[in-house]
Amino acid sequence: MARKALKIKQQRPQKYATREYNRCKICGRPHAYLRKFGMCRLCFRKYAHEGIIPGVKKASW
Predict the structure, then answer these.
(1) How many angstroms separate the CA atoms of 47 and 51, rounded?
(2) What distance in Å separates the CA atoms of residue 50 and residue 32, rounded to the nearest whole number?
(3) Was 16 annotated as part of a binding site?
(4) Which of 26, 30, 27 has its CA nearest to residue 10?
(5) d(CA 55, CA 34)
(6) Is 9 a residue whose pLDDT tops 70?
(7) Quick one: which residues bind Zn(2+) (predicted)?
């Protein structure tokens, strides 16, 4: 889990646009962020397996 202070720090408007970065909306993880879904790969995998994300299913070929 991300520290609460870092989540709050990220939400503030930054002085320069290059300092802005994305965080997972669920757990706050800053790395492995999927823009299309707004969450990190770990939360994406969890919710995809549970069937919460519509249109996503595990690939098998």
Answers:
(1) 6
(2) 20
(3) no
(4) 30
(5) 16
(6) yes
(7) 24, 27, 40, 43
Q: What is the predicted pLDDT for the residue at 2?
A: 67
pLDDT score for 39:
95
**Was 39 annotated as part of a binding site?**
no
Q: Where are the domains of the chain?
A: 1-11+24-55
36 is in an annotated binding site: no
Rg (CA), the chain: 14
47, with CB counted inside 10 A (0-12, 13-18, 19+), is middle
Q: Is 43 annotated as a binding residue?
A: yes
The residue written with tokens 């909306």 in the block is 25
The tokens describing 44, both together, are: 């994406």
